[in-house]
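User: Please predict the structure of the protein below. I'd like the answer in structure-token form so I can feed it into my own downstream comparison script.

Assistant: Understood. Taking the following sequence of 260 residues as input:
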Amino acid sequence: MRFIVSLLFLLLSASAISAPKANLWPYWQQYATTNSQTVDHGRWQRLLDKYLVVQPSQTLFRYGRVTDSDKYELDRYLRDLTKLDPHQLNRNEQFAYWVNLYNAQTVKLILDNYPVSSITKLGGFFSFGPWDQQVLTINGKTLSLNDIEHRILRPIWRDPRIHYVVNCASLGCPDLQPEAFTASNSERLLEKSAARFINSRKGVNPQSGNTKISSIYDWYGSDFGSQSQLQKHINQYRQGPPITLDKIRYDYNWSLNDAK
């Protein structure tokens, strides 16, 4: 029995490493070109203000301190978002909508199952995490977190910096930003998120003989291009001497980004 469990764990881990490819869901391509409708992300911002802990090298979340009333506010925020028709939003509003929706839903999944040591423990015995679970319904269509990231955000916007702003509640993940995304601040937060991650040890950590970089650059290598393109991307944001990626190794920490 122990051998079978170990084998299943290895198989699930391997499937996690084989990250989903960007596969456009055409239904979500439509957007408004003249509509000036905006989305209120105030409830999400208030939760971030109250429970996010920004440290020099790591952002954590106080899952264990979230009150029942604030859990209700998070639920209400998510319900309000799912009642909207994203097709009626312009492209910038859409981007902020999907990023905030992804991050807020991830926090909700952790809160619904807290205490938990890692998000990878969610999703059932035969799942490595909850990313394929149908957790949201918008315009009558059910969506998973993977749908939002890999079938909407990545194929529509085609921006590798997306990987720096969708948070998987793990210590190895790019930090959850203390600001809710909006149509007006998205570009600034994309740049800020990229710089913060690349200049953190979990993102890029030059060491004697090799450079340790996040497994994100392995899993989503197609989004960052060739090795030389990835090196140029990293050095664009890196503070300090430029690095070379001649010898690299990948690393990722799936432990929960929990502020005890």
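That's the full token string. The chain has nine helices and seven strands.
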